[in-house]
Design brief:
- The complex is a heterodimer of chains A (425) and B (294).
- Chain A is an alpha/beta fold and 425 residues long.
- Chain A is built from 17 helices and twelve strands.
- Chain A has two domains: 198 residues, Periplasmic binding protein-like II (D-Maltodextrin-Binding Protein, domain 2, 3-Layer(aba) Sandwich); 200 residues, Periplasmic binding protein-like II (D-Maltodextrin-Binding Protein, domain 2), CATH 3.40.190.
- In chain A, the strands form two sheets. In chain A, strands 1, 2, 3, 6, 7, 8, 9, 10, 11 and 12 form a ten-stranded mixed beta sheet that branches.
- The N and C termini of chain A lie far apart (59 Å).
- With 294 residues, chain B is mainly alpha-helical.
- Chain B has one domain: MetI-like (MetI-like fold, Orthogonal Bundle).
- Helix content of chain B is 76%, strand content 0%.
- In chain B, helix 8 packs across helix 10, helix 10 runs antiparallel to helix 13 and helix 12 runs antiparallel to helix 13.
- The chains are: A alpha/beta (425), B mainly alpha (294).
- At the A-B interface, helix 1, helix 3, helix 4 and helix 16 of A face helix 1 and helix 12 of B.
């Protein structure tokens, strides 16, 4: 009996003991990712790398992204992160990983030999992975990630539906409102987007906030120096009221997930969509004959440029505690070279992070690529808005769309939450 | 000899105790500890550094969105307790009789609970769709165009629309339990009542209901506990929107943990929610004892 119990206990304890650390075998690099659509392309690149360099690369897919996020958090707690991994989430989460010693500082590698590695990327793609001097996260300044692809979010228009109402793509907000009236008269649905996933509302609002008041004032608001009751913010909120009143917004947009929005646009059931560059691949799968083009959101002011959300689509980080740091860095250098990036772009219809890999991409993708220099993203700002404020802001815009709140009421409500949250800091 | 026997006895229960400790006691202890801390879920957890005492609970008491979410869950629970359970009982009574094809009905009524909640949510989202949804199409074709609306985006209908689907999805559980309860009632009691000249309603009131009290209590408790924790349907149908109109406690816990990286606060919400459910269960147990005595 006792011997049996001893055997059981031994097996149990061995099972609970520290397993072989992931990715610590010689000449084998392990990469964790969540990108199920890129799995085959990654595996092909791994095969090519092993043939060329003799180093084995194992891509391990953990999807969906929510599960992946939990997995890397748990792995960070137990120090079992692989050699290379991606971080999903906000800049705050990224900073948490860096400050906890899980991310290798790539600044030296990026700057080596006249910054040859760094210069191959779109500038914004690097910014997303960079912490600047004096950042509010207390992270040592540097570059901590390698962009694998880039993305930005713009407006798309259905050429056939616009032609049906005899209109051209709108360049200004007033033109958009005029088109909205014509669409309504013809019974054509206006704008679809995944505004049920509230971050896309945030994205749309921040585009116009930059256009109306400029970057400095937006960042001053986050710092608490400009209130959300400022007339410029009210003007931003009013845009949503105007879209609602003009009938531009698709019915049910406040609970619409992006997949539904994509289906509606792909099936010619909406004239405009607000979507990211990944949609080129999605629409190609849903309706290869869809006749559409890309345009920046119509500007409302000439005072400041229309800045759109964009930057690195997905990035890889090197585990600071890995035994294979140099091998991991070498692989990331190789995978971001022009040929490999062109291959990834061709296979996945995504935008490459390497600015020199843009040859032979579809016109819609090149339109997205053309706007990369006009992009911004909360992850590259030196300050980050408090989560409770972001939620109140986005949910509040939903309330304006459903006619529950006025722009002024929302301004006051968000400001009150901002002040309450700032006292907690 | 006696000591050896005692030791051996303890040895036998040790695996069970270990499993209970590892999978129940320790996680609960961790959640409770985290609820007293401010932690982002990424940095190394350090109790002395992250400890904030009852801070999370004090904030939670003032969190209007949280208590709003609790009210929404209560509203769905109320609809489930009445509409869902009444439907389940009616169908169980109908199937308890010797009707042709009774087993087919049982299978059909039990189908919704075995379907994936995500699938149910997405299918009903399509049915409710404001533009191309079947419901609006049917309403319009039957001449009720004035009722056509965006069911899930309209703040006046969103929560009720979700609650109805929750009931549709869940009534099969109640149906099966009620049916099992009805079948345990001896047939002789019904026959005796009939011989004594009791009407159908009198039989139901004086025979069925008293003997079904323990079953009612069981279904009542399961409905409350199951419905208060509803969230998959919400996530797949409205994601808590529009605004905060369909937020429920579990979606708020998820929002704290995933969107805001506030693990401590999320654990506090979990503890608070657990305490509320415990209190409800306690009241139900007391109530059931009273009803049994009555």
């Amino acid at each position: 009996m006792l011997s049996l119990f001893t055997v059981f206990l031994s097996i149990f304890l061995v099972g609970c003991g520290e397993s072989d650390k992931v990715g610590h075998g010689a000449k084998t690099i392990t990469i964790w990712h969540w990108m199920s659509d890129r799995e085959d392309a990654f595996k092909e690149l791994a095969r090519r790398y092993e043939t060329e360099k003799g180093v084995r690369v194992e891509f391990e897919l953990y999807a969906p992204s929510d599960s992946y996020t939990q997995k890397i958090r748990a792995a960070a707690q137990t120090n079992t992160l692989p050699d290379i991994y991606g971080i999903l989430g906000k800049k705050r989460d990224f900073a948490g990983f860096v400050n906890s010693g899980h991310v290798y500082d790539l600044t030296e590698e990026m700057d080596r030999d006249g910054a040859v590695w760094k210069n191959r990327f779109f500038a914004r793609a690097i910014s997303v992975n960079e912490f600047e001097k004096g950042n509010s996260f207390n992270v040592k300044p540097g570059i901590y990630g390698v962009p694998i692809d880039v993305t930005n979010i713009q407006m798309l228009y259905n050429k056939d539906l616009l032609k049906a109402i005899g209109a051209n793509p709108p360049e200004t907000w007033n033109e958009l409102m005029e088109i909205s009236a014509k669409l309504k008269a013809k019974g054509i649905q206006g704008l679809v987007s995944g505004w049920g996933e509230i971050w896309m509302i945030d994205c749309f609002a921040s585009n116009y906030a930059f256009n109306i008041m400029g970057k400095d004032k937006v960042l001053d608001t986050i710092r608490g120096k400009t209130p959300y009751t400022d007339p410029d913010w009210i003007k931003v909120f009013e845009l949503f009221r105007d879209m609602r009143d003009s009938g531009l917004l698709a019915s049910g947009i406040v609970t619409m997930v992006n997949k539904t929005a994509e289906q509606l646009f792909a099936n010619n059931r909406a004239c405009f969509a607000f979507n990211g560059s990944w949609c080129v691949n999605v629409y190609k799968g849903m309706n290869p004959d869809l006749n559409y083009r890309v345009m920046p959101p119509p500007k409302i002011s000439d005072k400041y440029p229309m800045t759109i959300w964009g930057g690195a689509g997905s990035s890889f980080m090197v585990n600071k505690q890995s035994d294979n740091i140099q091998e991991a860095v070498n692989f990331l250098k190789w995978v971001t070279e022009t040929d490999q990036q062109a291959y990834l772009s061709k296979e996945t219809y995504g935008l490459p992070s390497n600015r020199y890999s843009l040859k032979d991409i579809p016109i819609m993708l090149s339109q997205f690529a053309g706007a990369m220099d006009d992009t911004t993203h909360p992850n590259i700002w030196a300050v980050a808005e408090l989560p409770a404020v972001v939620e109140a802001f986005d949910k509040g815009i939903q309330s304006i769309i459903i006619g529950e709140k006025t722009p002024e009421e929302l301004g006051r409500e968000v400001q009150a939450i901002k002040e309450r949250e700032m006292t907690k800091k | 000899m006696k000591t050896k026997a005692i030791l051996q006895n303890y040895l036998f229960i040790l695996p069970a105790v270990l499993i209970f400790f590892i999978f129940y006691i320790y996680p609960f202890y961790k959640v409770f500890t985290l609820s007293l801390c401010q932690w982002d879920g990424i940095s190394q957890f350090n109790l002395s550094k992250n400890f904030i005492g009852l801070g999370n609970f004090i904030e939670l008491l003032q969190d209007r969105v949280w208590w709003g979410a609790m009210l929404h869950a209560g509203y769905i629970t109320l609809i489930a307790l009445t509409f869902q359970n009444a439907l389940a009982l009616l169908l169980a009574i109908a199937c308890d009789r010797d009707i042709k094809g009774g087993n087919i009905y049982r299978v059909i009524f039990y189908l919704p609970p075995v379907l994936s909640e995500v699938v149910v949510g997405l299918v009903w989202k399509w049915i409710y769709d404001g533009n191309y949804g079947l419901l609006n199409h049917w309403l319009a074709s039957m001449g009720f165009s004035n009722l056509v609306t965006d069911w899930l985006s309209n703040p006046n209908t969103a929560l009720t629309a979700v609650a109805i689907i929750h009931c549709w999805k869940g009534f099969g559980w109640g149906f099966i339990i009620f049916l099992a309860g009805l079948q345990t009632i001896p047939r002789q009691l019904y026959e005796t009542a009939r011989v004594d000249g009791a009407s159908g309603w009198q039989v139901f009131k004086c025979v069925t209901i008293p003997l079904m009290v323990p079953v009612f209590i069981l279904v009542f408790i399961l409905t409350v506990l199951g419905t208060m924790q509803v969230f998959v349907l919400i996530l797949s149908m409205t994601n808590g929107g529009p605004g905060y109109h369909t937020e429920v406690p579990v979606t708020r816990i998820l929002a704290s943990m995933v969107d805001s990286s506030r693990f401590g606060y999320a654990c506090g919400q979990g503890i608070m929610f657990g305490a509320v459910l415990l209190a409800i269960s306690f009241v139900q147990i007391k109530l059931s004892k009273y009803m049994k005595q009555a």
